[in-house]
Amino acid sequence: MSKILIRGAKVLGGEPQDVLIDGETIAAIGTGLSGEEGGPGADGDTPATVIDAEGRMVLLPGLVDLHTHLREPGREDSETVLTGTRAAAVGGYTAVHAMANTFPVADTAGVVEQVWRLGKESGYCDVQPVGAVTVGLEGKQLAELGAMADSAAQVRVFSDDGKCVDDAVIMRRALEYVKAFDGVVAQHAQEPRLTEGAQMNEGTVSGELGLTGWPAVAEESIIARDILLAAHVGSRVHICHLSTAGSVELVRWAKSKGWDVTAEVTPHHLLLTDELVRTYNPVYKVNPPLRTEADVLALREALADGTIDCVATDHAPHPHEDKDCEWAAAAMGMVGLETALSVVQHTMVDTGLLDWAGVADRMSARPAVIGRLAGHGRPLAAGEPANLVLLDPAYRGVVNPAGFASRSRNTPYEGRELPGRVFATFLRGQATVMDGKLT
Q1: CA gap 374, 185 in Å, rounded
Q2: Which end of the chain is more exposed for a tag (fewer CB within 10 A), N or C?
Q3: Maximum CA extent, the chain
Q4: DSSP for 397-409?
Q5: Cα dihedral 224→229→232→237 (10° resolution)
Q6: What is the pTM of this model?
Q7: What is the mean pLDDT of the segment spanning 112-118?
Q8: CA–CA distance from 404 to each of 72, 86, 105, 123, 438 (Å)?
Q9: Distance (Å, rounded) from C-alpha 124 to C-alpha 131?
């Protein structure tokens, strides 16, 4: 195995240091490293390949996404495990959790193992399947939770994402069941009766546009119920794509009680507001919908103070025809893997709300812990796995989806200038991206 010496990298945004990768692990971190530390590689004393970080690039642990839609099996016209993991690598991710709303649904050991093996074959990042909570995502009967947990994929996160587990009895049973193997139920919080026919956030803009509104209470009422259920049975619940100021307060209250509640926010909910719907461009149609400026500011503050545990992309690729249509007929969702780190830099780092160590915590360490994903989200230290991302925070560029690694192009950031660029991504010491390009 070869050695790689990253010279002059700002580790977690700190003072420039040298980082030596030897095989699959970090061999040494310090100043003035020669590349000889850590002993000879498989080829004897072959000198290390040197990457000059120029004293300005930031080195972080490889990013971990708790919420990715890879679409395979069943919707390979939107994305495949291969194209999705390539997009993940370009975005600095070394592990993603693949959501269960595929065709067939990932509600059996066989399907989750298929997705897991496809991830192994891709080689661009680790793929951890998310198992469905209920059979067929229909909310009526628990899926094979134990069988998926015991499978080769060792599923620990279960979600009907795309649909809410709205039956309180089913949700309670799921929370009780996953306790047996330290699993977590990740809830798509959406009261279905309150959102029938909803097209966007319910508020001033929806009233002016005459579009059916999606009230904040539809999210908040489910979160309130589920944190109480989780406390009652002593289980773990994770709130997917939290989007309102009221939801923040509910999660903050649950954490003050010491309950095992975690939550995620998407990059687009940290930046975009429902004012964009005035364009009627379906690229801004998403579930949950873009909210108000007040909600955006509350989400940023909650991510900064740790009430919201992590950033998750909810990468939702769609083919062109599902978005290039009138608003009411358009599919909901946005791609996000390749732009997530830039949006977080723009909204959280450049605003002073988070430092780079905080980004590492929210985009790597915490999601890895929530997903019980070993080997990822680890500290940057000698002996740790070399799952790393090296980024240039000084870069400024205009988002051009034509260059995406993802199979889909439904990004809300097309033509927008965003900061930061992933220069290199390493999966267990192997470069998956170098100089911003897939290897």
Answers
A1: 19
A2: C
A3: 70
A4: EE--GGG-SSS--
A5: -90
A6: 0.96
A7: 98
A8: 18, 9, 27, 18, 11
A9: 22
